[in-house]
Input
Amino acid sequence: MYRGTQSEIQQFAKRLVQEAGADNLIIGANCTVPRDIDPQHLQWAIEAVQKESEGLKSYE
Output
C-alpha cells in the first residue's frame, strides 16, 4: 500500500476481497497509515475494493 504501483495495490486489494468475501469486510493498513503515504494509493485500494465487491455481489 505504501510503495506499490497502482496495479500492485489494486491487484492485492482485489485478492483480499476474493479471499474474504464482500460481506462485512474491513480492509485496513494495520493499525495506522503513515502520515506521508500518498493519498492516491489509498484511493486506488478503495476503488479496487468497491469494484470487486460489486462484482461478487452480482453473482449472488
